[in-house]
Amino acid sequence: MNLAFLASYNGSSAQAITDACLEGDLIASPVLLITNNAKASALNWAENKGLKTAILNSTKHPDPADLDRAIAQKLEDNKINILCCSGYMKLIGPRTIKAVHGKLLNIHPALLPQYGGQGMYGRHVHQAVKDNGDTETGCTIHLVNDEYDEGQILAQKIVPVKAQDSVATIEQNVKDAEPQFYIDTIRRIIKGDITLD
Q1: What is the pTM of this model?
Q2: Which residue in the list 61, 101, 108, 124 is annotated as catalytic?
Q3: N or C: which end of the chain has fewer CB within 10 A?
Q4: Would residue 124 show up in a list of annotated catalytic residues for this protein?
Q5: CATH 3.40.50.170 for domain 1-101
């Protein structure tokens, strides 16, 4: 099972998934990391761990359709089975979605369908959780389609919220839960415990 990653910054979940593969904890091969950000720190760890890397963005491909084709081609050339988003901040095009045949995963820092959609990312999500006085939040792994955070929900992990928790604390608690949850969910997909559309 060949894995690729889309990341815009440090790709911390992608790094944890890669480490799990290299340590034999996850039976898959991390092959490729694609970023839209030439300064992404994810490029450094990915190269150090032997992954191929590619910078594909609107600077190189001003036409969104061309960019979509370029990403899809990279995935096809490397025979990618599962594509994992790890803090990738761009809407993904239809050719890229088709290239991995419905195995394009994203992790969102909330319990979808709550706090999803365009503009709901990072600190914005956790601020909304705090403002609404929620007693729990969490993370959701879902399939990616052509709408932000609208794809099939595959798995969710609940993270409790205490009344005294700051927005920063909520954010950190969710971040701490994400990497292992992502690894466990991919393992369940590979084993067939989770069926993808």
Answers
A1: 0.94
A2: 108
A3: C
A4: no
A5: yes
